[in-house]
Amino acid sequence: MSPSALRPAVPLMVLIIAGCAIAALGNGVRTSFGLFTLPMSADLGLTREGWGMAMAIQNLAWGIAQPFAGAFADRVGTGRTIALGGAVYALGVLLMAFSPDASVLIVTAGIITGLGIAICSFSVVMAAFGRSVPAEKRSLIFGVATAASSFGQFIFAPISQGFINSFGWQSALIWLGALLLLIIPLSFALRGRAETQEGQADLPFMEAIAKAWGHGSYRLLVIGFFVCGFHLAFINVHMPAYLVQCGLTPEVGSWAIAVIGLFNIVGSLLAGYLGGRLPKQLMLASIYFLRAVAIALFMLFPVTEVSALVFAAAMGLMWLSTVPLTAGLVSLFFGARYMGMLYGIAFFSHQLGSFMGVWLGGVVFDLTGHYDLVWYLGIMLGLASAAIHLPINERSVPNFSLKAA
Which CDD domains does this UniProt record tie to the protein (predicted)? Predict the structure, then answer.
């Protein structure tokens, strides 16, 4: 890579701190939406499927937009992309506070908020890190960024629940939307874009995707990432309500989400560190297998405050630990030039899984009065994803961006 491609517009430490702050803000607000399930459903007369559909559309919009947001950042610059995304994200959350029914929530909480999340997501932040950080340290820095997003989940869960308890859900959303505007000034530190290496072609969007999809290990990685999204979105949106159904208080749900974020700080940093030393595909297979085991044990024993927090801690260790490993494999396969776009494709699969997890959770609850079928499906998908990751070959794709002669 040319020297300019590795030279950030600001000192590297400033870039990393700003990127981590953006990841914490964006993920912290998003992961607190599950705490609004019960109060908004009660006040607006929503079915669980109606609320779940809005959240599912949010994840789908995020997933569809992510590859284009990554490509846009690769072309015109990360800072401008994230600033735009922060503004759209804040607008979506503010409009969400004034949405009177499920159909409007699909537009505000679903489409607008989902687009905003995509454009300023930590996927775009990691693209900035990928072009600025030496290759041998990328897995670790991806882990740091993922840990920062989890720290946002840890601090925003009790903050959001406190806002709801003190001011009501509508004012809580207004406060969260205002806090998201901080992303705009923070984005200044991430300005810049990836440069084409000497001797490489600047491939069009669809041609780059087609060449990447021809790589079998990338296909397996993309398919397996679907399961990560299914697990995260279902648990994040529906577990607080599930715990209330089991006789626990809403505060236990908020602390469960916070504990997931706290323990994922450790899990993400550990995954980032080990990802530079152990085979990433084997680590991913182990994470998905252990998720299936954790869910099975959670379903096997009675749900209590202790078991809920223990399960949250166990899942937290594996929550976003897949991200630095998946991003590290994408960067290894194809280099930093197309990182934003090609990780965005993998993340689209993740968000399809998120859509299914959130939507099925609502549908199954309305049909059966409980979530058990979705928990069991999560176990089976975890085992399947573990198997899918085993054949992945951890090596770079030669001459990926060179046009055929």
Answer: MFS_YcxA_like (cd17355)
